[in-house]
Fold this protein.
Amino acid sequence: MPADDEFEHFYQANYRRVVAVVAAVLGSTAEAEDVAQEAFARALARWPRVSGYDLPEAWVRRVALRLAVDTGRRLGRIRRLTTRLAAAGQAAAGAGGDPLDPLPSTELTAALLRVPLRQREVLVLHYLADLPVEVIARERGVPPGTVKTRLAAGRRRLERELAGNTEVTSDAG
């Protein structure tokens, strides 16, 4: 199979999964699509090397999550600024919704977005992407114990958020 066809097949088989994982981490489908496109573009530029990996999708997912961290920080700053402006009455109270095109707003999505990013990443990778702790540890470059700690802390935080208790505590990051 020619390299272009091989990459096209790889892209078609994995794009939606990567977008879903990143969207769950960021809370924005549009931003997740941008991040996934960038990650796949980087994979294409390195396709001769990346295609030789046991799991090329893991490489793309790792790149996408690194990009998502940067995007998440930027989106967090935008959300905080928007909230401050709205509270001060300087933002228009339009019915157009969130300009960042978030995922459909559900209680779970909103609660998940209040979970610290590192905990949210492992929750999404474990429960949405269905990855075992060892794979998450390898992909994130941390010990399995760290992943387990983040999963436990993330579950506790998510439970509090869903119960309506948004009191911030010092969960392990």
About this structure: The helical segments are 3-26, 29-45, 47-50, 56-87, 107-113, 117-128, 133-140, 144-163. The chain has two domains: 1-103, 104-166. The chain is about 70% helix and 0% strand.
